[in-house]
Design brief:
The protein is α/β, with parallel strands linked by helices. It has five helices and six strands, in the order βαβαβαβαβαβ. The longest helix is centred in the C-terminal third of the chain and has 15 residues.
Length: about 140
């Protein structure tokens, strides 16, 4: 399905979660590409140029927070909007914010909250590159 709202790269080691997120975003018109871990994400992100990336925290080979840090460190992806979609700790949240993650949605999540978070992050990608004010979107029960 060709998306009309933008391209999202969904990164999660659980195939069930990847498909759940894919279906919910595709129903809203997004084009969705998936990866099974952070290492695959880094390969795919350069190939498909997504508008937003969602990352699980705990994954094999390269976890979500290290993946986010690498995306932020690379010149071609340093402004790419990134959301953590994971059941993680408060410490993980702080680490995510410190490496430049733009949003967080706790698992299990309401599909409407997922869509709202991705839509909000799409607007970050459209922001004026001179503006560094990105703000961190916490997604607890739809509060962004």
């Amino acid at each position: 399905m060709q998306g009309t709202s933008g391209r999202v790269l969904v990164v999660d080691d659980s195939e069930v979660i990847r498909q759940l997120i894919r279906v919910n975003l595709e129903l809203e018109g997004f084009e969705v590409v998936t990866a099974a871990d952070g290492a695959e994400c880094l390969e795919v992100v350069r190939r498909v140029a997504p508008d937003v990336v969602t990352l699980d925290v705990v994954m094999p080979r390269l976890d979500g927070l290290r993946t986010a840090a690498r995306l932020r460190a690379a010149p071609d992806t340093h402004r790419l909007p990134i959301a953590i979609v994971s059941a993680c700790t408060q410490s993980d949240l702080h680490r995510g914010e410190s490496v430049g993650v733009d949003g967080y949605l706790a698992k299990p999540f309401d599909p409407a909250d997922l869509v709202a978070l991705v839509q909000r992050l799409m607007t970050l990608g459209d922001a004026d590159p001179g503006t560094e004010e990105r703000g961190f979107a916490y997604g607890f029960g739809g509060q962004f």
